[in-house]
Specification:
By secondary structure, the protein is of the alpha/beta class. 44% of the residues lie in helices and 13% in strands. Helix 1 packs antiparallel against helix 2 and helix 9 packs parallel to helix 11.
Length: 320
């Protein structure tokens, strides 16, 4: 994925003179005309960049609070774009803030659920009132890049560090809550991402979909909990691009839940329902989402939680 010159300029302009200088705006602007001919180096993390702890295999059962069989959380990708190929796409994603966030928050609240919101910090500058409302209701607000179309793998280390810093800072400024967790745009990161996250106080990342339960890796001298993102029940994979009926969202959640709940009797498990505000936040998605909540709440020994709670529990138990 190639970051457009315009999207990078918009990001820098929004940061103001001081922020732009911090990430080398002058150099970026002077190089903008040459970028088509000389694309930026891809800084994607390679397997050889992973710490040894990433390859640790856990088969010893862990324990969730109250000996729950399964930890379940609902995740909303709350995204904004600084630039895309057409203005319609930006406006379509803005449905998240103008309508979807309110519908989803009301639904979660009616069922007593605190969801995690993977938030692009551009939302904090365009629709700060939405983040204030989510914080007021006690929902979890997590970092999800500054704008969803600026991949960390296509910017320099200095730019990446400033983007992460600004993401956490802008969200905190808008709602008074500083995120402690992170999911990169598309789950992509560089070899320095976890280090930069640790510098900003993050304790977990969901960028690595490599297990059914969390694990710990070192980052800047700290313990970073990896909470593997689960795409198998993701709304875009389930009924978005495939144009299936939203009831498929519930069916895939149910199938995932049933297997993991059974396994959880001897090996406690974890289940996400990841969704996008601009998709499941439409009226057509509300019924299926409500069914997933009612289904999970119909079983004993289920921990309805958030990633912050899971990460803090993991660290408190000193799990690896």
């Amino acid at each position: 994925m190639k970051t457009s010159n315009y999207s990078r300029r918009v990001f820098l302009n929004s940061m103001g003179a001081a922020g732009a200088a911090a990430v080398g705006a002058g150099r970026m602007e002077s190089a903008a005309a040459q970028e088509e001919a000389q694309p930026l180096q891809d800084r994607a993390e390679r397997g050889t960049d992973f710490p040894a702890e990433h390859f640790h295999i856990r088969r010893t059962p862990i324990a969730w609070p109250n000996n729950a069989r399964i930890a379940v959380c609902w995740i909303v990708n709350y995204e904004g774009y600084s630039d895309t190929s057409n203005s319609y796409d930006i406006a379509y994603k803005d449905y998240s803030s103008k309508a979807a966030v309110w519908r989803l928050a009301d639904l979660f609240d009616s069922h007593g659920i605190k969801a995690g919101w993977y938030t692009n910090a551009i939302i904090a500058t365009r629709y700060p009132q939405t983040l204030r409302e989510l914080a007021r209701r006690g929902h979890e607000i997590d970092g999800h890049n500054w704008a969803n179309n600026i991949p960390m793998t296509r910017v320099t280390e200095a730019e990446e560090r400033e983007i992460i810093k600004r993401t956490f800072g802008d969200i905190e400024k808008a709602c008074g809550v500083r995120p402690t967790g992170w999911m990169g745009s598309g789950g992509n990161g560089s070899p320095r991402t976890l280090e930069f996250l640790a510098e900003e106080g993050a304790i977990w990342s969901s960028d690595y979909p490599s297990d059914d339960v969390p694990y710990v890796v070192p980052a800047a001298g700290k313990r970073m909990v990896i909470i593997p993102y689960q795409r198998e029940a993701n709304d875009t994979q389930t009924y978005g691009s495939n144009r299936h009926h939203p009831s498929a969202l519930f069916q895939r959640f149910k199938d995932q839940f049933d297997v993991l709940y059974e396994e959880g009797a001897t090996y406690p498990q974890m289940l996400f329902l990841p969704m996008h505000a601009w998709l499941t936040g439409h009226p057509v998605g509300k019924k299926a989402l409500a069914e997933t909540i009612r289904y999970a709440k119909g079983f004993p020994d289920v921990w309805l939680t958030t990633e912050n709670e899971m990460a803090n529990w993991w660290l408190a138990q000193n799990y690896t």
